[in-house]
């Protein structure tokens, strides 16, 4: 997941399409995959770059809230598992930047847009991780919400994106399970641990619901992205599915979802639940979340302070290429 | 839980017989020496993990976390064996999270702060080059249990050394700035490297029974390797003494270790007896 409010380019009816556009849409409708060198509408390419880029940025910014606890993990095993998990997230970033590169945008260009604020990452990573239970809540709820969106995206129309998603989903399901395992330990632990677990659920519940983005039933962007199979379900469908799956898990843990209106609706066959505070969501997107400044600063610092390192490697590569060329010329 | 206990019981059953574990006279030195191995990997792993999400390029974030993960894995094996040798009911986690600085046995080199990537990489390279020679020798240890751990760790450490050697060369012979940073890092860290080769009574006891090599015997190969990489990196080997800063492995550390432990041990100290 991790793509919210991705702006899509226009929506045309089949009659208004050029023959190329129509043929393209028909390929998608038949379930064919679109590959990098094939013709595609400019809007499709741009929308995908926005969505894949935002997802990639979320993976690398997402290292920070969990990286925050690696040095404080309570056992060697938990430390090893968390390190492996955060390293997976960086790996996901790598697949996704590579998928975006097949659309003609370099990783450096995307980084530049992240650092300037022109591109976003998921709102969820602007919330702080305050106790060890947050490592459980992030895995359980945040990765859990991500999976809801990523599983259907394995069938997305763009080949490289679909293949990246297949690899990512394999790892994400482990992440969610490790998060839930932490929550189990905490919920069944000492009174202090249980208090931390409940507090983590209280703080992450609504931000997790926000991850799916606001209701998009009337959105034109959404309709176009769905026609292109870049988006597979509406935000509301996914949010409902997430709530339906997560509530029994919370019950099993003996924790209380912080929503007094939460109730099973027999008629609908779903839980009724309270919407998150959408005003807060838009504020977070605007940069006014609890950690926006720290997260972006950390990424900018890493990039700027690493410039000499990248330049050094580039200079060496150029020198050794020149040396090889000189050696060849001398032969 | 049952499944995990079964696996662990099977592993114990499959472990080779090692008479050294029952040698009461050897126990204090053996325990101390195993803590040296495990504390080196724990503290260096901790330092490398501090980079998580802050690396200069995504591939480095992945590589640093991966190396840290390997080192924490080695820690579990070394401190696990140390706890077994000690036989006082302590676990690897107890050793990692409930000892104070004076009981830590890592060399000072690995606890030094990360600084920039130049310092981080040079510190790891100088350690990797030693670690590689040490594990190569330990893979032939007279203690089958030590040999088993060393053989597992050596596979990963061979790769660590390959990676840091390559980066030392590239950055040493990169831009003027990267060259200066690498040279500064080398000059600063060099006086800490001698500790890895200075034997005390514990090292001598381990060498005597054939568990570990004579430390001084590792030095020639280490120097050859290091010199070769530094030459190719156009870096100058410092002329200062390499054994100025000692004492880490006897528990006399730099000021930095206390802060590492304050952070690392926080949860175990704040919630004694809790299970995580």
Strand content of chain B: under 5%
Shape of chain B: globular
Q: In total, how many beta strands of chain B? A: 0
CATH superfamily of chain B: Ferritin, core subunit, four-helix bundle
Average pLDDT reading of chain B: 95
CATH T-level topology of chain B: Ferritin
The count of domains of chain A is 2
Largest interface: which pair? A-B, 50 and 50 residues
Pfam families (chain B): PaaA_PaaC
Organism (chain B): Paracoccus alkanivorans
InterPro entries (chain B): Aromatic_CoA_ox/epox (IPR052703), Ferritin-like (IPR012347), Ferritin-like_SF (IPR009078), PaaA_PaaC (IPR007814), PaaC (IPR011882)
GO cellular component, one term (chain B): cytosol
What can you tell me about this protein's structure?
Chain B: Pfam families: PaaA_PaaC (PF05138). The complex is a heterodimer of chains A (about 325) and B (about 280). With about 325 residues, chain A is mostly helical. Chain A folds into two domains: about 15-290, Ferritin; about 295-330. Chain A is about 65% helix and about 0% strand. Chain A is built from 13 helices and two strands; from the N terminus they run H-H-H-H-H-H-H-H-H-H-E-E-H-H-H. Chain A has a two-stranded antiparallel sheet with strand order 1-2. In chain A, strand 1 (about 265) and strand 2 form a beta hairpin. Chain B has about 280 residues and is mostly helical. Chain B has one domain: Ferritin, core subunit, four-helix bundle (Ferritin, Up-down Bundle), CATH 1.20.1260.10. Chain B has helices at about 1-15, 25-50, 60-85, 90-100, 110, 115-140, 145-170, 175-195, 200-210, 215-230, 255-265, 265-270. The longest helix of chain B has 29 residues, at about 60-85. Chains A and B meet through helix 3, helix 4, helix 12 and helix 13 of A and helix 2, helix 3, helix 4, helix 7 and helix 8 of B.
């Amino acid at each position: 997941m991790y793509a919210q409010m991705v702006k899509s380019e226009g929506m045309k009816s089949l009659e208004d399409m050029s023959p190329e556009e129509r043929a393209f849409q028909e390929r998608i409708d038949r379930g064919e995959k679109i590959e990098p060198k094939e013709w595609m509408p400019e809007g499709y390419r741009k929308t995908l770059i926005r969505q894949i880029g935002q997802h990639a940025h979320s993976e690398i910014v997402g290292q920070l809230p969990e990286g925050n606890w690696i040095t404080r993990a309570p056992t060697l095993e938990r430390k090893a598992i968390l390190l492996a998990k955060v390293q997976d997230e960086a790996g996901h970033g790598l697949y996704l930047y590579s998928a975006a590169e097949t659309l003609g945008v370099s990783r450096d260009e995307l980084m530049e847009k992240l650092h300037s604020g022109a591109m976003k990452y998921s709102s969820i990573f602007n919330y702080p991780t305050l106790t060890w239970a947050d490592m459980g809540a992030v895995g359980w709820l945040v990765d859990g919400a991500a999976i809801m969106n990523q599983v259907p995206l394995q069938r997305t129309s763009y080949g490289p994106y679909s293949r990246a998603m297949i690899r990512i989903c394999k790892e994400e399901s482990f992440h969610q399970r490790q998060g839930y395992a932490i929550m189990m330990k905490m919920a069944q632990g000492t009174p202090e641990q249980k208090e931390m677990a409940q507090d983590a659920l209280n703080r992450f519940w609504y931000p997790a619901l926000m991850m799916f983005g606001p209701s998009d039933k009337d959105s034109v962007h959404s309709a176009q992205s769905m026609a292109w199979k870049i988006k597979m379900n509406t935000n509301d469908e996914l949010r409902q599915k997430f709530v339906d799956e997560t509530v029994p898990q919370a019950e099993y843990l003996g924790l209380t979802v912080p929503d007094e209106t939460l109730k099973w609706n027999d008629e609908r066959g779903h839980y009724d639940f309270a919407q998150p505070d959408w005003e807060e969501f838009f504020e977070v997107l605007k940069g006014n979340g609890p950690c926006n400044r720290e997260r972006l600063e950390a990424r900018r610092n890493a990039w700027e302070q690493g410039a000499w390192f990248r330049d050094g490697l580039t200079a060496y590569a150029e020198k050794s290429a020149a040396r090889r060329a000189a050696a060849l010329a001398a032969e | 839980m049952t499944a995990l206990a079964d696996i662990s019981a099977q592993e114990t059953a499959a472990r080779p017989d090692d008479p050294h574990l029952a040698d009461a006279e050897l126990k204090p030195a053996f325990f101390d020496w195993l803590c040296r191995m495990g504390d080196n990997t724990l503290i260096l792993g901790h330092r490398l993990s501090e980079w998580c999400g802050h690396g200069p390029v995504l591939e480095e974030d992945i590589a640093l976390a991966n190396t840290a993960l390997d080192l924490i894995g080695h820690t579990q094996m070394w401190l696990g064996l140390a706890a077994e040798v000690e036989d006082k009911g302590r676990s690897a986690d107890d050793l990692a999270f409930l000892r104070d600085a004076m009981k830590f046995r890592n060399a000072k080199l690995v606890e030094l702060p990360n600084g920039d990537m130049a310092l981080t990489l040079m510190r790891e390279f100088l350690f990797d080059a030693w670690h590689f020679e040490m594990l190569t020798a330990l893979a032939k240890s007279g203690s089958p249990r030590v040999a088993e751990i060393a053989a597992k760790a050596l596979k990963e450490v061979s790769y660590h050394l390959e990676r840091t050697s390559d980066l030392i060369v590239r950055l040493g012979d990169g831009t003027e700035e990267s060259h200066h940073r690498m040279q500064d890092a080398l000059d600063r860290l060099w006086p800490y490297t001698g500790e890895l080769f200075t034997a005390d009574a514990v090292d001598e006891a381990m060498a005597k029974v054939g568990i570990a090599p004579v430390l001084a015997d590792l030095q020639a190969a280490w120097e050859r390797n290091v010199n070769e990489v530094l030459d190719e990196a156009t870096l100058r080997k410092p002329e200062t003494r390499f054994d100025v800063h000692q004492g880490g492995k006897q528990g006399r550390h730099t000021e930095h270790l206390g802060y590492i432990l304050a952070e690392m041990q926080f949860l175990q100290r704040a919630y004694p007896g809790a299970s995580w």
